[in-house]
Amino acid sequence: MTGAEFLRQLNDMLADVTEEERREAVRYYEEYLRDAGPEQEQQVLAELGSPARVAAIIRANVPGSRAEPAPGAPAPEPAPLRIRGLAPDTAACTGTDAAAQPAPAGAGRTMLWWILLLVTSPVWLSILAVVVSALAGVIGIFVGLAGVLLSVVLAGVICLFVGGVFAVMSLPGLAADLPNTLVGLANCLASMGIGFLLLALGWAVCGRGIPALIRALGRLLRAAGQGIARAWASLRRAVKGGD
Amino acid sequence: MAFNTGAALMDALVLSIVAQEPTYGYKITQEVRAVMVVSESTLYPVLRRLQKDGCLDTYDQEFAGRNRRYYRLTEAGRQRLADYRREWRDYRRSIDRLLLGEEENI
Lengths: 243, 106
Hints:
The complex is a heterodimer of chains A (243) and B (106). With 243 residues, chain A is mostly helical. Helices cover 73% and strands 1% of the residues of chain A. Chain A has two domains: 1-67; 115-242. Chain A contains seven helices and one strand. Chain B is an alpha+beta fold and 106 residues long. Chain B has a single domain (7-100), classed as Orthogonal Bundle (Arc Repressor Mutant, subunit A), CATH 1.10.10. Chain B contains four helices and five strands. Chain B has helices at residues 7-20, 25-35, 43-52, 75-100; strands spanning 4-5, 23-24, 36-37, 56-63, 66-73. In chain B, strands 2-5-4 form a three-stranded antiparallel sheet. In chain B, helix 1 (7-20) packs across helix 4. Chain A binds chain B through residues 21, 24-25, 27-29, 31-32, 34-36, 44, 47-49, 53-54, 57-58, 60-64, 78-84, 86-90, 93, 96-100, 112, 115-116, 119, 242-243, and chain B through 1-10, 24-27, 29, 33-42, 44-49, 52, 66, 68-69, 90, 93-94, 97-98.
């Protein structure tokens, strides 16, 4: 095909666009082929494609070019644009020109957030890990304290019990060996006294220490929550500012 | 894999080429094709649309015994180009941040 044939066919193919658009387009391609020069003509014609294809691209992409609804199949989209120096698309991506059809801004932003969340996962996952282990530590301290308390109370009960039992058991020995039995009895009474003291300690800790501990824990958790919320808010601001 | 780029980038490139000096369709096409994989038949609708939007206007000037049509930037086109350049910087920054990471200072 020669350049003149191309232009004539293009003119025929554009029969359904407005007179003005047809003149403009034919004039443009006429000049285009001249500027390319006769030695480039065949190469340019091959690159442009058939007059039908060029006409379809004009119809599809020049606003207001249609004098009447175009009959037949939908016009071909121009090929997706790609940056030079990079290999062609893989098959899966070919023909998807996402940027040509602007996605809703909200969806794009949500997508960006997900990507950001994924990319920053090493940071926030480690922060999460620290928070979780801190919580586990606090709970561990709590359980440990409860264990100590339990053993204090248990020790008190054992002291009371053992002291009482030995005291009762030593009573028959009073007549046989008064001094030694008295010493033994004193030991038993001392043990029972210690038992009472330990129980009182347990009571005091249960009544006052544990509520105070729970209050302190609550304050700690609230402060941690506020700190995380503040960090999140400033991260959001930083991301918004950078968009 | 290649990065698909949209119609807006094409508009921006055309406006930027014409902003340097008024020039003609074939030359604009070659300059765009120097950086982007784009069919020769893609540029005409872009030029025509930018012209209709009032971003470009044309004038004819004699060259080698014929009239050649030159495109030049209008005031609206200058404004549009400034907007595109600003948007491009923002876009590039976002992409760089995600793709290259924070340590890359561009």
